[in-house]
Design a protein that fits this description.
The protein is an alpha/beta fold and 451 residues long. It folds into 2 domains: 150 residues, Aspartate Aminotransferase, domain 1 (Alpha-Beta Complex), CATH 3.90.1150.10; 273 residues, Type I PLP-dependent aspartate aminotransferase-like (Major domain) (Aspartate Aminotransferase, domain 2, 3-Layer(aba) Sandwich), CATH 3.40.640. The protein has 13 helices and 14 strands. It has a 7-stranded mixed beta sheet, sandwiched between helices. It has a 4-stranded antiparallel beta sheet with strand order 11-12-14-13. A 3-stranded antiparallel beta sheet has the order 1-2-3, with no helix packed on it. Helix 12 crosses helix 13. The radius of gyration is 21 Å and the shape is globular. It binds pyridoxal-5'-phosphate. Pyridoxal-5'-phosphate binds next to helix 4. Pyridoxal-5'-phosphate (PLP) binds next to helix 4. GO terms for molecular function: pyridoxal phosphate binding; transaminase activity. Keywords: Aminotransferase, Pyridoxal phosphate, Transferase. InterPro entries: Aminotrans_3, Aminotrans_3_PPA_site, PyrdxlP-dep_Trfase, PyrdxlP-dep_Trfase_major, PyrdxlP-dep_Trfase_small. Belongs to the class-III pyridoxal-phosphate-dependent aminotransferase family.
Length: 451
């Protein structure tokens, strides 16, 4: 594939202003083609979005059927049959009947902002107006809108926008490969969960409305799976100090981690579950916050209105697509497939550990990651200026494999990494091809780094 060095000059404001982007043509199953006829395995489902595969006819039909009726009616004027069906589908994924009220948005970031505002308004209406802080974690990602960025804990992403807009105390992540407390799996006593209690005492629990975290960290760290017991302890601490748990399942949710919600892996029920990406499998922009009835009921009995709203919330077209995608996930048993094929994917990723620059391979369900290091024994990351993640991405892309790269933080304490999170429908043979291409890409970059 020809690599052009000149930037596109066609009026689009791209993310990377110095890069050439091929033009996408079409997609089917796990594959994407560009207009030059190159085929790619979508090994990352875009940005961990596509779960049911590309080009599913049932979704196209649901979209057209709804468009034939009506595409837009404002959420402050109407509900729709599609919205009711979509809510029912979403609620049916929840691990507890308490989680039974949905608020729809058009993506993850605004869904996160919505959850944070809901938490504050809930406590205010419950008679605790001072609970205004949200605690989050370093090495996390919650979106790019100003509030979500402040919650996030990726130093390189935050750097250009300091000072950030919310007061959001951060605690250490559950990052077993690089434990902030220098523990091993054998000596670990979930110190990273206890960090929440310490922070609550420091900030004053009466000032904290919620703790927000990704059950499995995605974009900023390459699929960090916490140790068993972590989430149970977080739940106990939040219960003790009257703090809500907002589970950011924008990447990890809707089956991606092999269960309906990611926290189902630890039998923990959050107070709010935030979803996007897999909710519509990328067929239309869609996000949602599902909240416990007590939150909805407190606001309903109090002021009676959640002071919020976005133009495209709950628009009928998005609702019809969301409902159709979730129906498709169920009818094709795709959560089980994510769980089972994800196990095979992870086993195969582990075979890459014999490559010189692979420090760690990890994941759960169809949500896996590889972390790159300069030294496997000391776990020393590469200098971020070398852009190892981008190099691996490019080498894989040129071979027809799409991955989702992430850099270490600006402070260089974590390594470059890549997410491998294909659609749930990927076959064993396609996983094998993905691994072969990834291995070749990593080997090529290793040679470049050491010449
Ligand atoms: N939260 C998490 C965990 C994410 O991974 C993302 C996006 O990658 C977001 C929130 C923000 O979602 P969006 O990009 O749809 O605004």
């Amino acid at each position: 594939m020809a690599e052009q060095q000149i930037p596109n000059l066609d009026g689009n404001f791209y993310r990377n202003l110095r890069k050439y982007y091929p033009t996408v043509d079409r997609g089917e199953g796990v594959y994407i083609w560009d207009t030059d006829g190159n085929r790619y395995i979508d090994g990352s489902g875009g940005a961990c979005v596509v779960s049911i595969g590309h080009g599913v006819k049932e979704i196209r039909e649901a979209m057209l059927k709804q468009a034939d009726r009506i595409s837009f009616a404002h959420g402050s004027h109407f509900t729709s049959e599609a919205a009711i069906e979509c809510s029912e589908q979403v609620v049916s994924l929840m691990p507890s009947p308490e989680l039974n009220k949905c608020y729809f948005l058009s993506e993850g970031s605004t869904a996160i902002e919505t959850a944070v505002k809901l938490a504050r308004q809930y406590w205010r209406e419950a008679g605790k107006p001072d609970k205004f802080k949200t605690i989050s974690r370093w090495t996390s990602y919650h979106g790019n809108t100003a509030g979500a960025l402040a919650l996030g804990g990726h130093t390189a992403r935050r750097r250009h926008y300091q000072p950030l807009i919310l007061h959001t105390p951060h605690i250490e992540p559950a990052y077993c490969y690089r434990c902030s407390f220098e523990k091993t799996p054998e000596t670990c006593n979930l110190e990273c969960a206890d960090a929440l209690e310490r922070m609550l005492k420091y900030e004053g629990p009466d000032s904290v409305s919620a703790f927000i975290a990704e059950p499995v960290v995605g974009a900023t760290a390459g699929a960090l799976v916490p140790k068993d017991g972590y989430w149970q302890r977080i739940r106990a601490i939040c219960d003790q100090y009257d703090v809500l748990i907002i589970s950011d399942e924008v990447m990890a949710g809707v089956g991606r981690c092999g269960q309906n919600t990611a926290l189902d892996n630890w039998n923990v029920v959050a107070d709010m579950v935030v979803m996007a990406k897999g909710l519509s499998s990328g067929y239309i922009p869609l996000g949602a916050v599902v909240v416990k009835e007590k939150i909805w009921e407190t606001i309903r009995r109090g002021s009676g209105a959640f002071v919020h709203g976005h133009t495209y919330s709950m628009n009928p077209l998005a609702m019809a697509v969301g409902a159709a995608v979730l129906k498709y996930v169920k009818e094709h048993d795709l959560v089980r497939k994510a769980r089972e094929m994800g196990q095979y994917l992870l086993e195969q990723l582990h075979t890459l550990r014999n490559l010189e620059i692979v420090g760690d391979t990890r994941g759960i369900g169809m949500f896996c990651g590889v972390e790159f290091v300069r030294d496997q024994t000391t776990k020393t990351p590469f200098d971020p200026k070398l852009k190892v993640n981008a190099k691996v991405f490019q080498a894989a892309f040129q071979r027809g494999l799409i991955t989702y790269p992430g850099s270490g933080g600006a402070d260089g304490i974590q390594g470059d990494h890549t997410l491998i999170c294909p659609p749930f429908i990927i076959t064993r043979e396609q996983v094998d091809t993905l691994i072969t291409l990834l291995r070749e890409a990593i080997e090529t970059v290793t040679q470049e780094l050491y010449v």
